[in-house]
Amino acid sequence: MSETTLGGIAGRMPRFIRRADPAVLTAFACIVLLLFLGSLYSRSFLSPEYLLQQLKVASFLGVIATGMMLVILLGQIDLSVPWAVAAGAMMACAAAAYGPVGVALAIPFGIVCGMLIGVVNGIGVAYLRIPSMIITLATNAVAQGLMVVYTGGFSPQDSATGAMRYLATGFAIPGVPNAVIIWALIGAAMVFVLTRTSFGRTVYGIGNRERAAYLSGIDTRRVVMIAFAVSGGLSAFGGVLLAGYASKAAQSMGDAYLLPSIAAVVLGGTSILGGRGSYLGTVAGVILITLLQSILSVMQMPEAGRQIIYGVVIVAMLLLYGRAPASR
Amino acid sequence: MKDWRYWLAEQRGTLLAFGIFIVMFVIYTSNHPAGFTANVVQTASNKGVLLAFVAMAQTLVVITAGIDLSVGMIFLLTNCLASWLVVGTPMQTTLGVIAVLAVGLLCGAINGAIVIYGRLQPIVATIATGAVYYGIGLLLRPFPGGSVNEDLADVLTGRVFGVVPASLVVLLAIVLVIWVPFSRSVLGRAAYAAGSSETAAYMSGVPIRRGKFAAYTLAGLLASIGGLFLTFFTYTGEAAYASGNSYTLFSIAAVVLGGVSLFGGKGSAIGAIFGALAFRTIGDLLFVFDFDPLWQPLFQGVILLVAVSLGAFALFRVRNRLEWFL
Prior knowledge:
The complex is a heterodimer of chains A (about 325) and B (about 325). With about 325 residues, chain A is mostly helical. Helix content of chain A is about 75%, strand content about 0%.
């Protein structure tokens, strides 16, 4: 890096700056600003242990936001995240109660349950042409209803399996939490799919104009459906990891992930109208949101204040760079 | 000859919602252990009116082809606020009611300003403002509590002449004072036009911005009337996240049942009111048939899913496949 920049600062820097998305740059600048503010508040804020811990917490949100990003790139939205997360966690824990086979299949079973929710969303959006925010709200309500009936209205007693705990809290490589590795793997796969496969290009195409994509001979409805299924599956996987982290599932564990996952994607510069955005931005958004949460909790801000600051920060940042063009 | 046909076509959604409500309510009262008495009607209307106000609020925004995911939170916030302010002497109570309504109006105006003048997508903007309103509500009422002027509460949740539920009378009054003038005004037309085709409305010189802003602002006001009524029924204020969320969700269900198009430009608040009443009655059917209350969330979710899927029948009328993709 240093050799190349030494060789051609004048030639390379402008292109580097030109190519970078201003939204992603703003998000990273905000991360630096937050780290700076945090370090003023407490010395330990910049210690490697603390930062690694933040990255670990961020990776749960990161997995969920990856699915959300895929859907938002299509110009749709997935509001079924809360109960897809909870269903994934609860079903994985429930499967663990059925002997060694159940324990072995716990994680895939949880993910499949989330994918089922996603498939219902996908059928509704792609084939029945129901607005995504409506159908996903409805499937969220149905998933909640199913879970309430299943658990009897209480948090389930089954606990997470060893494998789930290992994925969420273990260290396969010394010093690097497994959750971070999983996020990195899922992120790498997502980057590959979005930039190197025809599926990924189609996602961007549909986000820009579904009619045009359809007329180009793409089965757009299948792509939309797959994207929703992936989003549901990733939400559920996030729930599985969370259950492993807390070693059990809880009723409203997913509620805290809807707004942050949308916010992370949108703050990372992905257009809510679809068709524009990079995964790097989503990574920045996830880290930004996690740091913000962490600083607020270090400052012992009560829940009420956290919600207010959250909402205000999201609206403020969107007003900075997420505005639609003026009508004319 | 032609006129009444047009009227019928325009009011089809509303009439359908009215029909569903009547059928459900007949099933409900005929199976209710107490039967069709003034008490049963009063309880049902008190519960239904809460959702009806929130659904009216949602209708105003949905007509402009937007969506307000913060209505439930405005409803909660004003409930918490009312449990502080609507107490004391008649004078203080009046001022309190005015203050609560003003806060609702302000919340709606903030939503409108962010969506219209800030040019953000309504869905993200209102999720974020909803978080803010919920946070403020939680600040006001960290724990459930507070009180309300019980004389006023009893009058508004009681019965007029011993028969008609007072809450229905208030609902009718609100419709006459807010909805009817709005839908007939230039601003109301502008809101409909903006929802139908924003570009065409803009080109025709319709004041779409003012129309949409008025719709969002009045939506805040209507949600705050709902919050006020919640306080009158419960005598307390409570910032329960799940309750706010479910009111937002149910308001969308009510709007859909009421024949309001989620793509904007079509439907009326009257339809949404009947949609809300029908939705509440359907939810309560479980109780008269002695089902386990645990099944209620699932039951309501399935109704919502079926209601939104009904709109898909329009697909069969589509001649050109390209019209699938808006």
